[in-house]
């Protein structure tokens, strides 16, 4: 007797069952749930393939464009996800995955996330969120106090006041930055006389009424690309995001910032906002926020700090001084899915003045009515999940002391790794860590000596060759799957601002050890001998030897 494969059927009873009846304990889905709950790290190591597959191969698993007519069993879909999705995902929790701003999560985030998903609250309105609304207000109050350190009376007055908001919860730093600049734009052109405000009449009428030729957002050249998106979305145009040069430490030059603001003023362009960066994406540096705040006040500009990465440094008594001046900001962005260690994706922006959010307030009769406690009245996004529950849990379970340990450990680890790189004659530290991000590259000792005496043309040729080698090593190491560092492009002043490709490392995962870092350098050194790059290495050494020989000849003649 041959068994016929049982197929799933769509029926009223089946639809009722998938909404009400849990999977049996021995089902694929239940086994996945049990394995993840018992040992998340083990589950990931077992199911995520270490060796990278070409994305075009993976795409074949997702090539059907028609929605299936007939249903499949949950167990069948669960197995598909294991085989085709999980097995081709990135193991971001790996302690050797040190290339991006994604880390391992505290184990408790998984079961607590189930509570959030099961409740399925919508934070746009209290009718669909109830207790989640005051919890979100509390989380915003906690982060506000971390930044601005107001007294208890301030938070008792404002935290749960339905007519005000200490901030806005968002799906990430991009929306948080956009929200802050949305507020800045509307405040820059308020209602006056017969003008009803930019939020009512638009940017064209606002500029005409106030006598400006345009409006600008000023930020360092290391500002995050989300600020350019914001300038686009807010109707200013991408060219209205005005970059300012940085110093050798990748921090904005305050003299150049003030000069740029004066230049814009002469051109009748309103300096709508000045943005400081607390933890640049590429190098982890912090702008001189104190000085920037003074300049923003001088020009009547909204001062926003993008602290999506570096904000949690405020937990550290040892390192919080690096963010001195952040308390003067009108608004500050945090990305909770970075160094607050919660799942993707949640960010937030806090406002120094509780009345600032009213600049973007919206209401509707069927929802977020005027005077209600609904959080959706001052957020760009409408329907949102209750991610504040996970931030709240992190702040309670890890607490200030726990976050301080994580921040201090990450910064110390970055300094340790920088020292390890400097001790290796064939590696070059390109940017020294200020927080827990650094950049470096493989650069043979004789090449470093040649670069030190090279003229601009010689340095360009050497760095062009090094760029190809760095790219090869980074890409090959990623494909091997044992470890991952990212790469970026910097313009070091010591190399005449020529674009140099470098390895970028983010050390936020508490599970990353010195031994892992040693292995990463060893693998990169080994890859430098790979036959696929030997022609390039030969050319590099020949050019370096020629520069050194020329230098020695010049020294003898002198």
TrEMBL record:
Gene3D superfamilies, sorted: Aspartate Aminotransferase, domain 1, Type I PLP-dependent aspartate aminotransferase-like (Major domain)
InterPro entries listed in its UniProt record: Asp_decarboxylase_pyridox (IPR022517), PyrdxlP-dep_de-COase (IPR002129), PyrdxlP-dep_Trfase (IPR015424), PyrdxlP-dep_Trfase_major (IPR015421), PyrdxlP-dep_Trfase_small (IPR015422)
Pfam families, sorted: Pyridoxal_deC (PF00282)
Keyword vocabulary terms for this entry: Decarboxylase, Lyase, Pyridoxal phosphate
Named cofactor requirement(s): pyridoxal 5'-phosphate
Domain of life, source organism: Bacteria
PANTHER family referenced in this protein's UniProt entry, alphabetically: CYSTEINE SULFINIC ACID DECARBOXYLASE, GLUTAMATE DECARBOXYLASE-RELATED
UniProt similarity note: Belongs to the group II decarboxylase family.
NCBIfam families referenced in this protein's UniProt entry, alphabetically: NOD_PanD_pyr
Name assigned to this protein: Pyridoxal-dependent aspartate 1-decarboxylase
Species this protein is from: Marinobacter albus
Highest classification ranks of the organism: Bacteria, Pseudomonadati, Pseudomonadota, Gammaproteobacteria, Pseudomonadales
Name of the gene encoding the protein in the UniProt record: panP
């Amino acid at each position: 007797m041959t068994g016929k494969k049982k197929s799933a059927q769509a029926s009223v009873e089946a639809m009722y069952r998938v909404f009400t009846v849990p999977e049996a304990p021995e089902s694929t889905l239940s086994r996945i749930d049990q394995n993840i709950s018992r040992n998340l790290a083990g589950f990931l190591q077992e199911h995520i393939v270490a060796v990278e597959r070409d994305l075009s191969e993976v795409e074949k698993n997702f090539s059907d464009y028609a929605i299936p007519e007939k249903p499949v069993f949950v167990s069948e879909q669960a197995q598909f996800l294991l085989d085709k999705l999980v097995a081709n995902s990135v193991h971001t929790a790996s302690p050797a995955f040190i290339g991006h701003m994604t880390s391992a999560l505290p184990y408790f985030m998984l079961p607590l996330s189930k509570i959030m998903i099961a409740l399925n609250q919508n934070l746009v309105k209290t009718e669909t969120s109830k207790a989640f609304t005051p919890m979100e207000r509390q989380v915003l109050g906690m982060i506000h106090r971390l930044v601005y350190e107001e007294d208890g009376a301030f938070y008792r007055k404002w935290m749960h006041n339905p007519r005000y908001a200490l901030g806005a919860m968002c799906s990430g730093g991009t929306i948080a930055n956009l929200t802050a600049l949305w507020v800045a734009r509307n405040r820059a052109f308020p209602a006056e006389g017969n003008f009803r405000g930019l939020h009512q009449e638009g940017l064209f009428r606002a500029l005409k009424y106030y006598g400006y030729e345009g409006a600008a957002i000023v930020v360092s050249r290391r500002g995050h690309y989300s600020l350019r998106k914001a300038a686009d979305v807010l109707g200013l145009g991408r060219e209205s995001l005005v970059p300012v040069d940085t110093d050798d430490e990748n921090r904005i030059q305050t003299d150049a910032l003030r000069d740029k603001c004066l230049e814009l003023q002469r051109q009748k362009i309103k300096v709508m906002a000045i943005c400081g960066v607390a933890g640049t994406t590429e190098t982890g540096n912090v702008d001189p926020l104190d000085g920037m705040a003074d300049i923003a006040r001088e020009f009547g500009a909204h001062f926003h700090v993008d602290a999506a990465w570096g904000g949690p440094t405020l937990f550290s008594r040892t390192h919080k001084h690096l963010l001195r001046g952040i308390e003067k900001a009108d608004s500050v962005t945090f990305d909770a899915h970075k160094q607050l260690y919660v799942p993707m994706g949640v960010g937030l922006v806090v406002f120094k003045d509780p009345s600032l959010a009213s600049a973007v307030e919206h209401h509707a009769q069927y929802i977020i009515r005027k005077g209600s406690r609904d959080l959706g009245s001052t957020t760009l996004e409408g329907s949102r999940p209750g991610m504040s529950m996970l931030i709240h849990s992190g702040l309670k379970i890890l607490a200030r002391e726990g976050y301080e340990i994580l921040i201090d450990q990450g910064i110390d680890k970055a300094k340790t790794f920088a020292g390890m790189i400097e001790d290796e004659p064939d590696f070059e530290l390109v940017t020294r860590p200020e927080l827990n991000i650094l950049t470096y590259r493989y650069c043979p000792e004789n090449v470093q000596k040649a670069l030190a005496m090279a003229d601009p043309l010689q340095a360009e040729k050497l760095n062009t060759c090094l760029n190809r080698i760095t790219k090869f090593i980074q890409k090959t190491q990623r494909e091997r799957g044992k470890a991952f560092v990212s790469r970026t492009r910097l313009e070091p002043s010591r190399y005449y601002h020529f674009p140099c490709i470098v390895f970028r490392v983010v050390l936020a995962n508490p599970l990353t050890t010195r031994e892992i870092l040693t292995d990463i350098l060893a693998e990169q050194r080994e890859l430098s001998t790979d036959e696929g790059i030997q022609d390039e290495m030969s050319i590099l050494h020949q050019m370096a030897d020629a520069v050194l020989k020329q230098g020695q000849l010049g020294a003898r003649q002198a």
